[in-house]
Amino acid sequence: xxxxxxxxTGVIALAGAVSAVQYCDSGxxxxxxxxxxxxxxxxxxxxxxEQNPFDILMQVVAPKxxxxxxxxxxxGKMTKNPITVAWANGNKTVVSSRWADLIPHIFEPSSPRRCxxxxxxxxxxxxxxxxxxxxxxxxxxxxxxxxxxxxNATHWTLTALCSQCAxxxxxxxxxxxxxxxxxxxxxxxxxxxxPSQPANNASSIVKHTIHAAFTVxxxxxxxxxxxxxxxxxxxxxxDETSGxx
Length: 245
Ligand SMILES: *[C@@H]1O[C@H](CO)[C@@H](O)[C@H](O)[C@H]1NC(C)=O
Ligand SMILES: *[C@@H]1O[C@H](CO)[C@@H](O)[C@H](O)[C@H]1NC(C)=O
Ligand SMILES: *[C@@H]1O[C@H](CO)[C@@H](O)[C@H](O)[C@H]1NC(C)=O
Hints:
Blueprint (H helix, E strand, L loop, with lengths): L3 E5 L12 E5 L5 E7 L2 E8 L8 E8 L5 E5 L9 E7 L2 E12 L2 E4 L15 E4 L2 E7 L4 E4 L4 E2 L3 E9 L3 E4 L2 E4 L7 E8 L18 E7 L5 E2 L2 H8 L12
Parallel strand pairs: 4-19
Antiparallel strand pairs: 1-2, 2-3, 3-4, 4-5, 5-14, 6-7, 6-17, 7-8, 8-11, 9-10, 12-14, 13-14, 15-16, 17-18
The structure holds 2-acetamido-2-deoxy-beta-D-glucopyranose (NAG) (3 copies).
């Protein structure tokens, strides 16, 4: 990534309102709506549409010390919305499309394990209700990893085009992002421990150590130049196809 120019487009800072920050990448002409979410910078750009469906250009910049992996949840919650998980792999980044659900009725050995010949299976089991699980893949959302997905000694950056991150269906209800929403609800999660198999987009990841909700100004992310951004400026050179996941 080159140097950056950041400037405020928000005019009025109402109490509790977040002013939109536009981030323009100096290496390209791409401009995003930027939000600082904990240790992460989350940037999005979308076409100048009035409603779903639309693809989203996203960028996440993460310090490696804090974020061995980081996740962005498009509906602002841990479960039942598309989750973009990313991490560094050498000098590139890997993106993984995931979904979390509440898994009811999970029986686990109690800890420390207590056993007795008259208990079921010889050991006492405890019942954990509604256990959120993040390991699910979400093949419906697809990503094109773009130029600018790099990692250096201290940070990794994901730059990707996501198809089907802007709407999703859970329990028969379809939710779509409103491209004019100035405070769309998002959430992030991260953990300092990197995935065990960084080259594998289905690698297991350790549980998050931090998670929080934040809002994104989607209205400030709309741009007439959307098509140009990823067709002309953000494609990897042809001899760098390894950047495409
Ligand atoms: C990334 O790593 C590869 C393999 O280690 C190396 O060939 C390439 O030059 C590196 N690219 C950059 C920009 O450092
Ligand atoms: C991993 O990448 C493959 C090939 O692009 C894709 O089909 C698959 O859905 C991805 N898996 C995850 C978990 O993102
Ligand atoms: C590493 O990448 C981050 C994020 O793009 C950037 O801010 C930082 O200056 C880079 N560090 C070096 C040594 O290039």
